[in-house]
Amino acid sequence: MFEQIERVPGDAILGLIEAFKKDTNPQKVDLGVGVYRDAAGNTPVMRAVKEAEARLLKNETTKTYIGSHGAPAYGEAVLPMVLGANSPVLSAKRASATQSPGGTGALRLAADFVASQLPGKGIWVSDPTWPNHHGIFTSAGIELHKYPYVDADNRLDFDGMLAALKKIPEGDVVVLHACCHNPTGFDLSQQQWQEVMAVLKERQLLPLIDFAYQGFGEGLDEDAYGVRLLAENLDEVIITSSCSKNFGIYCERTGCLILVAKDAEQMENVRSQVAIVARENYSNPPAHGGAIVSEILHDAELSAMWREELTEMRDRINTLRRDFVDALKPYGLDEKYACVAEQRGMFSYTGLTPEQVDRLRDEFGIYMVRSGRANVAGFSHENLPYLAKAIAAVND
């Protein structure tokens, strides 16, 4: 029966990894893969994570299942991190946490929940958005639509976004990036979040907030502004949170699906349905990553260490953004690429065309997604002069 199965093209980013490995250019630069890198080009294990794992290894007594919703201690740690320690949503017991295999797993849970409990509702994503959003939602059988987010001049098109939201059918789901928009790096201001909230409320739209990069934009609490605003002012909100990036535990696949309901009773109804969705997908989530996060956030010393390390990573990325623009000044390109310094998170929508990206790869060994999305964490003070020279060459 397998004879009828056709080969399909591989993932574009994974293909970049293989091409980069084979490139013999000694000055090659990888700006494709979406992981944090330090000045040496490594994705380090955070000191707080190392210490937490040592404690877990010493004190661990079982490898039994942790249940479809995951370890309670994990939810107790993540909920206040996302919604705020003094959140009225938590006080009212309106929120439910379900541990998931990464933020991607949380998105899949959300997709299956919407498909089964809100049949016929469409889902709207920004144009552009993280490419895997398309696959996750369509594979769950949900009709996918787009709303504008970036204009032809590579700027945030908030007016176009807001106008489109006002036309979405009542009851549909709207996917919003909480911060560090992937792939563009363009985030909403607090005033813009308030305007979006008003439209969601008026149109009775259900927000699904993808919160994959908490702490990588402006700060843990600052990045959560939109999430907390919607959760505290709307009856129903879906949030998908990831600890993969801000704890640097990518391979441990540690995420969380958070659902906010109108009241505690409705939350329990929703929670019961999510347990079934999780059971049908993978039964139980992996335990180790959640245990690391829980150990850190429940310990004042480890939590302080982790926050300090996260601040170092965020500051490094934001500094590299400014330094990149400065490196382009001698070529007269600093104004053209000024948006890179204004964006936030690991990714930048540079404005480079697919043809320019191809030239950067073929002529200079600089690898990024053909949309022009670059992983800013791949910049370094050593490669910035080379990057600037190469970008100037493809802008001639």
From TrEMBL:
It comes from the Bacteria. Keywords: Aminotransferase, Pyridoxal phosphate, Transferase. Its cofactor is pyridoxal 5'-phosphate. One of its GO terms (molecular function) is transaminase activity. CDD domains: AAT_like. Residues 27-391 form the Aminotransferase class I/classII large domain. InterPro entries: Aminotransferase_I/II_large, Asp_trans, PyrdxlP-dep_Trfase, PyrdxlP-dep_Trfase_major, PyrdxlP-dep_Trfase_small. Homodimer. Belongs to the class-I pyridoxal-phosphate-dependent aminotransferase family. PANTHER family: ASPARTATE AMINOTRANSFERASE, ASPARTATE AMINOTRANSFERASE, MITOCHONDRIAL. This is Aromatic-amino-acid aminotransferase. The gene is phhC.
